[in-house]
Design goal:
Blueprint: H1 6-10, H2 28-37, H3 44-54, H4 68-78, E1 83-91, E2 96-103, E3 108-116, E4 119-123, E5 127-129, H5 138-142, E6 144-147, H6 150-165, E7 182-187, H7 197-208, E8 222-226, H8 230-238, E9 244-248, H9 254-260, H10 269-283, E10 287-293, H11 301-311, E11 316-322, H12 336-348, E12 353-355, H13 369-373
Parallel strand pairs: 4-7, 7-8, 8-9, 9-10, 10-11, 11-12
Antiparallel strand pairs: 1-2, 2-3, 3-4, 5-6
Subcellular location: Cytoplasm
Binding site for S-adenosyl-L-methionine: 191-192, 225, 248-250, 324
Protein name: Probable dual-specificity RNA methyltransferase RlmN
Amino acid sequence: MPKPLPGELTFAAPRGAKPPRHLADLTAAERREAVAELGEKPFRADQLSRQYFSRLSSGPDEWTDIPAASRAKLAEGLLPELMSVVRNVSCDDDSTRKTLWKLFDGVLVESVLMRYPDRVTMCISSQAGCGMNCPFCATGQAGLTRNLSTAEIVEQIAAGMRSIKAGEFGADASGEAGAVRLSNIVFMGMGEPLANYKRVIAAIRRLTDPAPGGFGLSQRGITVSTVGLVPAINRLADEELSVRLAVSLHAPDDELRDTLVPVNTRWKVAEVLDAAWDYAERSGRRISIEYALIKDINDQAWRADLLGRLLKNHRAHVNLIPLNPTPGSKWTASRPEDEREFVRQLKLHGVPVTVRDTRGQEIDGACGQLAAAG
């Protein structure tokens, strides 16, 4: 049994009531046991899993393959309501939709659906709040409330997939609302995913296990972000997954990163990148280096040059993020000319770089803003 991660100990959520048990919390064997405990035949577990993961059923009335007398008992015992919509807000011609969810204990979390010409991406939360305390991040400033359960993570995706299936989320290039399909999932919403390691990994298994055990999504379409919890990155490499790792670096030098990403006082830039390169080697996946460009803080040309020197000749791609400022914050996006020079410096070192498509600014699009507004 692996030892608990330092992140799980240092940033443990307060004790309180646990989320109700849900089908998505359980492995295939555990589901059969749970169904038997409810007085049903074990094969009902596969039927229930197929309804949830494959058919995206929204309620027992649709379970035509399960006897009517068994539906209510199975629904109550294994498919309780985990979250309810507080509100949806949309922009970009309804190609971006952010949802504020209320969990069973009143805690608020967020998810975002984003439709592009060639894909639909969903950004999901793994914690309510965050314990990493990055000063430019709305979620980080709110602090950590608690970890989400495996099922609370999975249900965000299930809800997004149901919405797409029902034609509620815009239209694709052909104009047919129901033709789009969720293809990419990024653990870049509220929280530090690797500080909720066990539940995040279990959620990834549910997302990628073939039917009826899971949604059957591709591991290569999943990205897990981290501020740099080195022991957890090493542990992730041992999982032998092919998910992409995204490292939220935000500064190439320890002096500044100690301030912008406080966990850097524990694991320095060199240690974080060494762990990332090992993950790239073992997974065969290129590392995404996330870098929020902040005016006059981390957007200097010399820092771009240093970043380029650190990343060149490695499997890395830099994702520059124009900062989506939070109300009242001193932190704001870089000037366009500084952004262009930063890109130029990285390219001089042969480092691939893109500037993230900024979406959702008019709907409190930055992580944690909608929850902070309540």
